[in-house]
Structures are given as C-alpha cells and as structure tokens.
Design goal:
Blueprint: E1 11-13, E2 16-18, E3 27-31, E4 35-36, E5 46-47, H1 52-66, E6 70-73, H2 83-93, E7 96-98, E8 100-101, H3 111-114, H4 118-131, E9 142-148, H5 155-171, E10 175-179, H6 185-194, E11 202-204, H7 213-222, E12 225-228, H8 239-251, E13 258-260, H9 280-291, H10 296-312
Parallel strand pairs: 3-6, 6-7, 8-9, 9-10, 10-11, 11-12, 12-13
Antiparallel strand pairs: 1-2, 4-5
Helix pairs in contact: 1-2, 4-5, 5-6
Length: 317
Amino acid sequence: MTDRHSPPGPLRTVAGPLPASAVRGPVLAHEHLALDLARGGDRTATLTAPHRPAVTRELAALRAGFGLALVVELTCRGMGRDVRALARIAEESGVAVVAGTGWYHEAFHPPEVATADTGRLTASLIDEIEHGCDGTGIRPGVIGEAGSHGDVPSGPERRTLTAAARAAVATGLSLATHARLGRGGLAQLELLTAAGLPPHRISVGHQDLLDDPGVHRELAAAGAYVAFDTVGKEGYQSDAVRLRLLLALLEAGHADRALLSCDISRHGYLADAGGGGYGHLFRSFLPRLRAAGADEELIDGLTRRNPLRFLTGGEPR
C-alpha cells in the first residue's frame, strides 16, 4: 500500500502505468466520458456511443488550448461504465484517462450489492483492481465515485463504502466519493477512516453544492480532499457561490486540499450541445479565480499537483 511515507507510484491509466512526473498540464479530477444513468429515470443523463466523437473532440481541443493532460473518470459500477470506450477516447484525444471502480449511491446499485456481504464486495473490487474491468484487462486507477445520498449512508451504502475503503487499503488506490448535493461528507469520512483508509487517500465529492464553509474546513483539517467538482452546473449552484466557498477554504489555509472539476454527466452539458463542457473550468471559472487574486502557482496546485497527490497518496511539500 502506498502511504504518505512511501514514494508515490505511477498512475494507473486506461493505457497502462503513467509516472505522475509526466503529467505536466492540468487534471480534471472528477469527470464522466462514458456513462448511462437513464435507469434513474432521466434519459438525458447519458454519454453513450453517439456522443463519443464530441467528447473526444472536446478533450483534444482542451489539450491543445489549455494543456489538459489527464481526466479522472469516476463512472463506476451501475453507472454504465465502458472502459473500452475510455481507452479509445484517451488514444484519440491524446489525454490520459484514469478509470474508476466501486458503487454509486443506492438508487444505482446493481443486483450484486443486495446479495453480497461486505467481505464479498471487497473481494470483488480487489479482483477488478488487480485483473481489470469487465474482462478487458484495463485496470482502474481510483475507486469512485463511491456514493451515498443523504446525511448518513443507508445500510447498503455503508456496505459498499466500507468495501471500497477496504479495497483501497488493500490495493493502494485512493477513493473519491459522491455526496449527493454535498450532504453527508463528514459521515462518509468517518465511515471510510473507520475502515482503515487514511484521510489523505479520500476526496469528498460535490462540496461546492454545500454552502457550509465550516464543513469544508473540517474535512480539509482532517486531511481529506474537498472536491469542488460541479463547476459550471448553475442549475445546482451558481459559480459565484462556488468561488466564494473556494476562496473561504483557501483563506483558511487549505489550498493543498481542494480539487476542481466540472462533473459532465449528460450529453446536454457537452460544448457541441451548447453546454459549458469540460472546458468551463478553464474558460470561465479559473479566470474569475485569477481575478480574485489567485496566482499561477496556486492555479497549478489546484488543477495539477493536488489531484496527482490525491491519486498517488503523496503529501504536500
């Protein structure tokens, strides 16, 4: 297991190992490139085969325009994961991709969850991490987005989150969560650390949807990463509020614990469809952050060094 006292190992991408030192440009810490959430009742919550060319074009353009180097793709079991598609997108766009594993929140749990105890779930994840996803040999490089949907995880979510934490401990992967509307992050952290996973291997998701700087400070002070990962989703939260919350976390001294991304989770968000796309972070939000006083060293920390340190288990210098 990689920990804060060990030299960080290479990233596990869909194309194989990649030294973190080779990632010279920004990283999107929480995205979706291929998913299908239509089973939740929303047929627009898809990024399937017809959308692959648009996804690939966007990533290639961001690589050319902003140096985008890596996408952490957090589509896991029950979300329509397609690691073969991720491999094609990575190859054609020139942007490295890390694939995920684990289970989303309860509404999207596949049947395997209902019939398995925590031990079997843990063993299933470890097998996938060691041997590859869905018979492809493509190994996930992160666990996530491991989900819960309320202030405390439900019974099935406790089992899947505990299994995810145990698998992370056993394999050395880090773990990114889905905290619906930002709620329940502290409960997630408590459960995951109780299963033996150190806080610096945990990213608590969707905290930009929770207007509570005190919770953000508490998560960061404990050593976890605080994900502001729905940037541009104005229907959930305005970017003005996101910026205020991020600045509060930075001013509290936790610049080394913040992660940024856009969480593109339906085809209507793509630039080709008129949405902000994966590039909204670079085109809109980061210029506003710079205008608020952020220098390029801070921007590089938020968009490159922090996500790489999260993935590899390193600690800030």
